[in-house]
From TrEMBL:
Bilayer topology annotation: Multi-pass membrane protein
Protein's UniProt name: Calcium/sodium antiporter
Highest taxon in the source lineage: Bacteria
PANTHER family given in the database record: INNER MEMBRANE PROTEIN YRBG, SODIUM/POTASSIUM/CALCIUM EXCHANGER
Gene3D superfamilies per the UniProt record, alphabetical: NCX, central ion-binding region (1.20.1420.30)
Domain Sodium/calcium exchanger membrane region: 4-141, 174-313
Residues spanning the membrane: 69-91, 125-146, 174-193, 208-232, 244-263, 275-292, 304-321
Amino acid sequence: MVTSFVILILGFAALVWSADRFVYGAAALAKNFGVPTLIVGLTVVAMGSSAPEMMVSASAALAGKTDTAVGNAIGSNITNILLVLGITALLRPLSVSSSTLKREIPLVLIVSLATWYIFSDNYFSLAEGVALLIGFVVFIGGLIIVSLRAKNQTDPFVSEACDEVPNDVPTKKAVIWLVIGMVLLPVSAHFLIDSAVDIAKYFGLSDLVIGLTIIAIGTSLPELAASIAGVLKNEDDLALGNIVGSNIFNILAVLPFAGIINPSLIDPSVANRDILIMIGATVALIIMSLNFRGAQRINRVEGGLLLIAFLGYQGYIFSQVG
């Protein structure tokens, strides 16, 4: 069991590092090939923090662990809002000034409700997976079109996303990092899933619970790091944007892997418990960030409440084990 825990930790570390290198190489290569910085920033860079979830969900689905793949996506969204945003707001209150974020935050609720509808029959089909993926393409296309039309306006989230695009990276170096990332991502995800399954069996955890807890928290580490870095640099919109964008990507780009690769019955707890928690957390995010009573900011008290809710959710899940 000690070996499985060591492999799990190393797997997470390799997954996060390889995802970062993959995104770095892909973004630099796209920039060198003449793709506008705005498009690179809103696609490749913005999706970077969700790369670990994508690879883990795909690996889990290929291994026949659809509940783990689904739990990873749903659990990551819950973790992003309750844990990542909670810790970030405790460090420093977050102001919301980006018009892009004000459009995207309600969209998180819309896609969350759509997810609940999809899983209400406790089955995830190929058609439903494809529908979510089509929604992702439409979302990215719409985001780019709206941002290009408003390119003369100063939107802090868009400008901060563009600042994250690497500049002056030689094409050869970009290709090397891209290839390294492409090789290590699936390998690290494979070992991570195998070790997580061993740990789950040892402690009597279901495939769903292991996805909702250990794996979800581990794959949310890039969002935590990015959000903390954002507030430390006074880039509040980028910090919040990492969470909002990741939650949309997790539903529209990560979740489809489970349905497309391995359509199957899903643990009823997903629709009856976990997605409802995700929706509740999203509603809390909307109320806190789009405060119509005054300043649009998430304060430390609200951050503390989010963190307490996360601990309560985790405690409840483990109390149901066995």
